[in-house]
């Protein structure tokens, strides 16, 4: 365990001497650590997928330029997570004067009490050490945030307890921004901050100081300011005032996963699938792909409000609910293991409906109906990936000959398998999904996926009452009377 200097005298004679820490700012500190990570080819934001060639280079450039920056993006694009990950670029430990509310630099204290303490005790001044997590201050912007919350204000109670005059600097109660001194100050949803509060950030961003209400006092704070915002919030709820936007060094746009694999990697990382129960739930890859495809289709659907976006939390919650439905089935039948089926995705509708902001046309249909259509569309897309060239005519013919099959997401695997093996050629075509030696669970899940895929492409029918059945062919359109032949020149006269 590293032993850190406990007094200012010990600090001066250590590796954290004045030459190293005296005038170094937090932006310079992060710049130096970032350059070392780049040279060592270390990952900068572990757990963030899909931003390696888009968002991440812009963040690196902003930090190397020592810029304050803002992340603009729709909900569920890991903006807050990125800001919290910036603490990895801070030193493992940073010395400050013990007991100081604003983490004063021992070599260059800015608050009056710390200056008096160093003048009085000299090298015996006690030193405390800050971990990276203690140097990150985060605030969710709301319209009721006041200047006292952000910057600070007079504290009459402190003045009364210490017997000091209200004009004394030592009666100040520091706000969040001064308390983030020598660290990172993050404001989420910046447009929700009232305009007059945004004005209060001008000085710290341009001149590097703040003024406390009622005092001719300046605190030259050392802080990296980072923000997040939804681009649509500029008009929907509030706006970022122009002078503040002008003072933000870099504006960086985030985005949703660009490919299915990127989305699946995020969902697999965030979803709680490995439950603590003894029963394990196996999630086939095609089920994961269907769940992820739902989010991609929703982001393209004209009935879903694109300005609000479709959060990555949708596939995460959907996968968790699907696993829970399979887990419930296993518990009811006393099974030790269970495989998630397509029917479990339909059972996860509550995880979808609340995450879709619908346009007028979508509101007319309702969130549940839109969600069902998205699931069906996603099944069709993934079905094509696996069975585009497969010969499934025998399966379709079984239904055309009068066969019907009703499946229930609460049925045990053996019962479902017994029903599905009656269909000629169905289980034989699932080998590419289940492997060489599939179990009953895997076979039943894959066969159900095939039927759902055929229904998605309207090759067979399905209803809640009958289950799967042969989709009746549409009757031929009756032939009408023959149209009279009209010469081309006369025909143009009728047009």
Describe the model.
The radius of gyration is 32 Å and the shape is elongated. It folds into two domains: 8-253, 3-Layer(aba) Sandwich (Rossmann fold), CATH 3.40.50.300; 260-469, no CATH class. The protein has helices spanning 8-12, 18-21, 26-39, 55-64, 79-85, 112-121, 147-150, 156-162, 176-179, 195-199, 202-206, 233-236, 242-247, 260-270, 285-300, 313-333, 342-346, 350-353, 360-365, 367-387, 393-400, 413-420, 431-434, 440-456, 488-494, and strands at residues 69-72, 94-97, 127-130, 136-140, 152-154, 172-174, 183-188, 210-211, 218-219, 223-229, 250-253, 280-282, 337-339, 461-463, 467-469. The longest helix is centred in the middle third of the chain and has 21 residues, at 313-333. The strands form six sheets. A five-stranded parallel β-sheet has the order 4-7-10-1-11. It has 495 residues and is an alpha/beta fold. The protein has 25 helices and 15 strands. The N and C termini lie far apart (91 Å). Strand 14 (461-463) and strand 15 (467-469) form a beta hairpin. Helices cover 43% and strands 11% of the residues.
Principal-axis shape equals elongated
Strand content: 5-15%
- Count of discrete structural domains: 2
- How many helices? The count is 25
List low-pLDDT spans: 482-495
CATH superfamily of the largest domain: P-loop containing nucleotide triphosphate hydrolases
Average pLDDT for all residues: 87
Number of strands: 15
Structure class: alpha/beta
Could you name the CATH class of the largest domain?
Alpha Beta
CATH topology of the largest domain: Rossmann fold
Helix content bin: 40-55%
Oligomer: single chain
What is the CATH-assigned architecture of the largest domain? 3-Layer(aba) Sandwich
What is the terminal-to-terminal distance? 91 Å
């Amino acid at each position: 365990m590293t032993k850190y200097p406990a007094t200012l005298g010990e600090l001066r004679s250590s590796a954290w001497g004045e030459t190293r820490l005296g005038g170094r700012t937090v932006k310079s500190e992060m710049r130096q650590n970032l350059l070392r990570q780049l040279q060592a080819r270390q990952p900068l934001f572990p757990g963030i997928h899909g931003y390696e060639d888009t968002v991440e280079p812009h963040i690196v450039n902003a930090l190397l330029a020592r810029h304050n920056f803002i992340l603009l993006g729709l909900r569920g694009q890991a903006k807050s997570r990125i800001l919290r990950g910036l603490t990895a670029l801070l030193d493992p430990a940073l010395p400050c004067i013990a007991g100081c509310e604003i983490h004063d630099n021992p070599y260059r204290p800015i608050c009056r009490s710390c200056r008096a303490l160093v003048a009085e005790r000299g090298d015996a001044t006690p030193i405390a050490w800050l971990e990276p997590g203690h140097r990150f201050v985060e605030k969710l912007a709301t319209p009721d945030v006041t200047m006292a919350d952000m910057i600070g204000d007079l504290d009459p109670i402190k003045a009364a307890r210490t017997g000091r005059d209200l004009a004394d600097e030592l009666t100040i109660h520091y706000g969040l921004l001064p308390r983030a001194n020598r660290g990172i100050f993050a404001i989420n949803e910046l447009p929700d901050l009232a305009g007059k509060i945004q004005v209060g950030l001008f000085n710290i961003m341009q001149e590097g100081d703040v003024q406390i209400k009622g005092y001719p006092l300046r605190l030259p704070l050392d802080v990296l300011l980072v923000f997040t915002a939804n681009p649509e919030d500029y008009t929907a709820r509030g706006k970022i005032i122009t002078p503040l936007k002008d003072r933000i060094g870099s504006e960086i746009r985030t985005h949703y996963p660009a490919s299915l694999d990127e989305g699946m990697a995020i969902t697999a990382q965030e979803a709680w699938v490995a439950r603590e129960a003894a029963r394990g739930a196996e999630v086939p890859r095609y089920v994961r792909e269907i769940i992820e495809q739902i989010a991609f289709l929703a982001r393209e659907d004209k009935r879903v409000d694109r300005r609000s976006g479709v959060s990555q939390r949708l596939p995460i919650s959907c996968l968790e609910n699907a696993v829970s439905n399979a887990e419930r089935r296993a518990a009811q039948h006393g099974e030790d293991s269970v495989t998630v089926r397509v029917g479990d995705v339909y059972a996860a509708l509550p995880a979808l409906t609340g995450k879709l902001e619908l346009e007028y046309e979508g509101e007319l249909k309702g969130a549940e109906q839109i969600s069902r259509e998205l699931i069906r569309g996603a099944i069709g897309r993934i079905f094509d990936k696996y069975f585009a060239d497969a010969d499934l005519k025998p399966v379709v013919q079984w239904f055309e000959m009068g066969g019907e099959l009703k499946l229930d997401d609460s049925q045990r695997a053996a019962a479902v398998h017994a029903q599905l093996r009656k269909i000629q050629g169905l289980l034989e075509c699932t080998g590419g999904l289940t492997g060489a030696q599939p179990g009953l669970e895997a076979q039943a899940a894959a066969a159900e996926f095939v039927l759902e895929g055929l229904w998605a492409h309207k090759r067979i029918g399905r209803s809640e009452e009958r289950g799967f059945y042969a989709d009746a062919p549409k009757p031929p359109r009756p032939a009408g009377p023959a149209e009279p032949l009209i010469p081309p020149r006369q025909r143009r006269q009728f047009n």
